[in-house]
């Protein structure tokens, strides 16, 4: 990922324009505040393994990194970015207005909506039933024991609330078509909550642990599941992000991070 600062931004509202997928798309992000997208979003996007026309929802999209990465890699993907924060939704719209994103801008839209809404309120907010082939999500991951940040935007993106996975996965189950795929990235400590929230909505849960280096504990998990499936849970081979002490990505992670490959499921 390369970085170019916007020299016209006011200091209090500084922002950057960051290149992803080796320049195939660019993202406007807040500088010095809020959540800044990186490898987590790119690995999440890599869980969408599809060819041809596909409809994708990115829940809690932030500035839109994961959804835009899907659109950049899959030329016929139609993506909707759902984001509750007006500030972050504005960054996503700024990104789509960039000339560098002309190849994806007509296939990506932004809707300001609370993804935890239920029933008619959810549908009225622009989250209709049985619409999408894929739903991706990177829910807030900090629990109540974590040190809280004074940064409002970052707090909104990171602060986990009770029942969060149940709320988000319930919405994913509603808006996905039968047989559609849920994909998410989370902390390993959330595995039990994810399994419980999938319940009878999703089956075929596949979990992949992400380890910084060989011999180190996992810091993230990638999870995919299929709406209506009755397949059993699978623990997939782990992904090691770095081969050694250096900061370079391992070959597979580098391909996933730069949109050259997808992480296909092992089953349905």
UniProtKB/TrEMBL annotation:
- A single Gene Ontology molecular function, please? nucleic acid binding
Q: Does the keyword Signal apply?
A: no
Keywords for the protein's UniProt record, in alphabetical order: Methyltransferase, S-adenosyl-L-methionine, Transferase
User: What biological processes does GO assign it?
Assistant: methylation
Q: What CDD domains is this protein classified in?
A: AdoMet_MTases
InterPro entries reported for this sequence: DNA_methylase_N6_adenine_CS, SAM-dependent_MTases_sf, Small_mtfrase_dom, tRNA_Adenine-N(6)_MTase
* Pfam families listed in its UniProt record: MTS
Q: Where is the Methyltransferase small domain?
A: 42-189
Q: Which domain of life is it from?
A: Bacteria
This protein is called tRNA1(Val) (Adenine(37)-N6)-methyltransferase
Protein species of origin: Ectorhizobium quercum
């Amino acid at each position: 990922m390369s970085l170019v600062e916007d020299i016209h931004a006011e200091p209090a509202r500084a922002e950057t324009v960051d290149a992803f997928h080796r320049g195939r798309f660019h993202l406007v992000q807040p500088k010095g505040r809020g959540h800044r997208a990186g490898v987590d979003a790119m690995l999440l996007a890599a869980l969408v393994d599809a060819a041809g026309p596909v409809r994708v929802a990115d829940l809690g999209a932030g500035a839109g990194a994961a959804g835009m990465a899907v659109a950049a890699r899959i030329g016929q993907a139609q993506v909707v970015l759902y984001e509750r924060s007006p500030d972050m939704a504005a960054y996503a719209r700024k990104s789509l207005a960039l000339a560098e994103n002309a190849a994806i801008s007509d296939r990506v839209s932004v809707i300001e909506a609370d993804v935890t809404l239920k029933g008619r309120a959810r549908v009225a907010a622009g989250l209709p039933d049985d619409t999408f082939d894929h739903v991706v999500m990177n829910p807030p991951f900090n629990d109540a024991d974590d040190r809280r940040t004074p940064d409002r935007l970052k707090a909104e993106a990171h602060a986990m609330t009770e029942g969060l996975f149940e709320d988000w996965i319930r919405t994913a189950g509603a808006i996905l078509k039968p047989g559609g795929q849920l994909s998410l990235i989370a902390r390993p400590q959330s595995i039990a909550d994810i399994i419980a929230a999938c319940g009878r909505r999703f089956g075929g849960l596949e979990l992949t642990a992400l380890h910084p280096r060989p011999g180190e504990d996992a810091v993230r998990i990638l999870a995919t599941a299929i709406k209506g499936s009755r397949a059993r849970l699978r623990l997939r081979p782990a992904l090691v992000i770095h081969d050694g002490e250096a900061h370079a990505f391992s070959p597979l992670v580098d391909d996933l991070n730069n949109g050259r490959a997808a992480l296909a499921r092992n089953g349905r």
